[in-house]
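thoughts on my protein:
***
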Amino acid sequence: MKTLKYLFASALSMLISTACTGKAAPNTTEGQEGQNETEEQVFSLKKDGGKILVVFFSHAGDNYSVGNIKVGNTKIVADYITEFTGADQFEIKTNKYDGMAYKPLCDLAKEEQEKGELPPFEGGIDNLDQYNTIFIGGPVWWGTYPQVMFTFFKKYDLSGKTIIPFTTHEGSGLGNCVEDVKKAYPKANVTKGFSIYGHEVRDGKEKVKKWIDKL
């Protein structure tokens, strides 16, 4: 009995300690291109022909698995997307997390999520109407996008646009990001998502290209 209690406690501890990176999330795989592979994607990037925007949040500094990095994992993927599609970019920037070690950052992210906080971000988009297709990307913190991205969702109405979610992660895949984008924008066409391990993005350009080529 004591052994069973110990095993349960150990499993619970592991779940808590890896939650910020999403290591314990079920049914997700690296390079995953959607939460439901049977769901049809009623969208073609090539046929759409409109202007494209990449909206993303990326965390530089202390990151799980890759250590202290000058360029965030999601920023690298966003740059790949821009290279392959000619998209413009809007980076969601906040100095709230600057200089934070990984563990305190995870604790803060959890607190923000539990309280439903909407941290402010810098700058804005004045010409959103010109974009038909919007890629939305970020790391997965506690099963979904960082709360500062939900600030963006609340500020900007993307109804009628095609939204393509993507994530960087260390085991959680897409988490709940696609569903949360659908909740934020019920009148948008939210397509399948794409996820890639953060520690692989620097060598993952071809993987991103294969995904883009399928759109």
User: Anything to note?
Assistant: The chain is about 35% helix and 20% strand. Confidence is low (pLDDT under 50) at residues 2-19, 23-30, 34-40.
